[in-house]
Amino acid sequence: xxxxxxxxxxxxxxxxxxxxxxxxxxxxxxxxxxxxxxxxxxxxxxxxxxxxxxxxxxxxxxxxxxxxxxxxxxxxxxxxxxxxxxxxxxxxxxxxxxxxxxxxxxxxxxxxxxxxxxxxxxxxxxxxxxxxxxxxxxxxxxxxxxxxxxxxxxxxxxxxxxxxxxxxxxxxxxxxxxxxxxxxxxxxxxxxxxxxxxxxxxxxxxxxxxxxxxxxxxxxxxxxxxxxxxxxxx
Length: 234
Description:
2% of the residues lie in helices and 68% in strands. The protein is an all-beta fold. The strands form three sheets. It has a nine-stranded antiparallel sheet, with no helix packed on it. Strands 10-13 form a two-stranded antiparallel ribbon. Strands 11-12 form a two-stranded antiparallel sheet. The chain is elongated, with a radius of gyration of 23 Å.
């Protein structure tokens, strides 16, 4: 990995480039190996002490290019590719009395493809957009924190020109609210999670799996609840 960072009076700007290569075997088949490579570039920066209603702005942008090829002996088999980008922008607002916090936006885009005899999933494109806020309110014995995240996800199955069993399909998951609502000595987290393509669109056999991968397009959204407690004192 290589990092380049430049600092200035009110912030910084940095960039990184990393690459990873690996060739490894599998536990299911002695003669099956995986030749993998992954490249990533990232950019990050922040501007502070802006004055006015916005005190600072921080941004992050990254792109990852992943690929691996399954080999049976010396013969190349299925090739898997995954390309994704992530963007995040957040702003810290000025203090309003005892209230301090940030608001932001995040976007993720991902493209997946599998080509070969053991392609178990169709070509796909996933897009996710979200806005979020996190606030802290200081009081005499500590502080209260609360926040929320509103996001939407679009999953597109693009089929596969060489595999007839994969039909094009689009699923749009409407905006969902994930809210964190602390009380004096604890917090409750209500979470929403959409079904991924691997739960709905996979079909086929894999060289290093004992059985077939079978997705079900009838699966609905998953929901979960988790609890968290926290007390902070100055």
